Each structure stands twice: as structure tokens, then as C-alpha cells.
Amino acid sequence: MAWAKIRIVLKRDELGMPSFWQLQLSGWAVFYLVGLVTLLPYRKAENFRNQGIAFAIMFLASCILRPICRSFLRVSFSWIAFGLRALAWSAAIGSVATFFIELAILRIVGRVFSDSDLGVNILQFSVVLFLWCALYFGIKQWQRAAQERDRLLRAESEARDAHLSALRYQLSPHFLFNSLNAVSTLVLKGDSEGATRMLSQIASLLRVSLEGPIVAGISLSQELDFAKKYLAIEKIRLGDRLQVAFDIAPESLEASIPSMLLQPLLENAVLHGVGQLKQGGTIAVQTQAEDHRLRIVVRNSGPLQNPVTSGKNARGIGLANTIERLKRAYGPDCDIALLWPESGGCELTIQVPFKKIATRVGEVTCAQ
Hints:
alpha+beta
């Protein structure tokens, strides 16, 4: 079975934050200059040399701590667990760093243990490294919180844009032209009942898309209602050529998803799939909610596709807009996969974190 997959990833430093190395170098440089200022009254070259050696080795020790701290962030530890692990590693690396500092200054191993305050220095350097770890964790947590806030703000903005540009991007002029042309054909055939029903469906769809509340997320059940209204219009236009099947897991209906998510995907399925077959075909929508993930699958009949050329051509306005909105809403937690069966047609799979919709009086918001 031919297949292609699109991974959604976020760009690094999307908030405009300085990189790690910029902060690392500037932070230690400032710390070193402060240390030099404290030595100015003594005016001894040896003190400045020793200070430089100490800061160089501590800088290297903090660089060694970085991958260790990053590994802690990949696991959901409590702050106490973070602190204990950081303290243990800071003490271990601080002890080794202190030994090398004393060795570089005294130059004889025996003098390290006899002529220096090794215990006091180990404590001091370990505390410095522990504070470095705490600062690293604090910056990373702030970045995560800022990214989440930025993502939510962008999702709200995307929701407003989706409503203002619903006719342009999701109810495309092509669809409206075909629908109105189909109404005209029904009138010429004397099928006034069918024409009236189709006009009613178009009006209902436009009313929902333009007059609905502006929210970033709606429940899957609401999104499915809108999708069924759209498919009802296409059903009137294509008749028996279009068959529709829904396999919806009940537990998935309360999931929160970006508004206007399914319609452009279904329009692609009709335009590039079923609509290309004289005998017509089927569009199937399936949802599942497992392991805190929501899975949405849209399958459609269609002509046999070359996965290489299809991958390049499939990302039109509708799909590209959907991918961008999902990336804004979920970041790297979103997976999109495109699959082209050997029998023809296309299968689109979306997997996002499962979050229940929280309903309040007079509004609908995403549950956090």
C-alpha cells in the first residue's frame, strides 16, 4: 500500500527567545566580571588567573549538566523530584569540578587534599551549579508556558479568521458555483422540491459558518453536525454517486477540536475523489478516543493516485489551512498521515491530544 506521512513540528525559538548558548555565554560572562570586580582591591595577578581557571571549569561543568537537565524535563517529575535530582548531580559534578580547579591552581595532587579548603569549595561550587540547574528549569518552564499561551492566542485568532474567510477557504467559490448550478439544473428539470431543499441546506450551512459563536474549539459532535450539513448538499448535487458512512465512537463526541476542521477535508474528498468517478463512491468518517488521543480518519473512493505526485498536489488551500491550524493549536502533539490505497482513493488520519469540551452558560470553551 502506497503511503506518505506529514509530521507536524514547531520551529525552535519561535517566541524570539535567545538561544541556550547566547544565554549561557552571556550569563557566565557577567558572573565572571562580577567576580573580577570583587578582586580589584587585591590587585594580584595570581588571583585573577585562579579566578579565570575556576570560572572556565565551572562553565564546562554547567555544559555537562545541560543534557542531564534536559533528560529530567522529558519526564513528568514534581518540582521536589526535580530539585533532589538536580542537587545530587550538582554535588557530584561540583565535587569533580572542584578537584580539577584545585589541581589546576595548586598543580600537585597532594596539596589539593592538604593545603586547600576542599570541603568548603565543593559546597560552594555545588551550590552554584544547583542554582544554575534551578535557573535552567525556570527558563524552560517559562518558555513552555509562553508557548502554550502563544498557541492559544493563535488558535483564537485562527478561529476568527476561519469565520471571516469561511466562504473563501472552506466553502470555496467552486463549491458554491457547483451547488447553485445544481439548483438551476433541478429547476430546469422541474424538480422544485429538490431545488428548494438544496437552497435550504446551503442557507443553513452559511448561517452556521457565519453566525456561529467565535471560539477556538468546539465539540466533535458540533463539528460532525456541520459536516453532515455540507455532505447533504453534495448528496443532493451528486445523488446516488455519493455514499456517506459515519463510524463515530460515542466517547469521542465530547472531544474539543478546532472549528471548521472537517469541512475542507470532506470538500477535498468530494472534489478530488468521489467527484472524479463516473460511478461515484463513498466517503467514510471514523473517530476513536484511546490513550488520551483523538483519532479522526477520513476515507474516500477515487482514482488511483501516484503517492509522489499526490503528496505534492494534495496540500491545496483546504488541507494546507487545516495543517497550519492544527500546528498552531497542538504544536508537535499533532500527527497527520496521508495514505493512498492501491485500489484508489485516499485516507487521511489526524491524531491529536484528547481534551473534553467544557460548556459554560452562554459560551463554549476548551477544557484544559
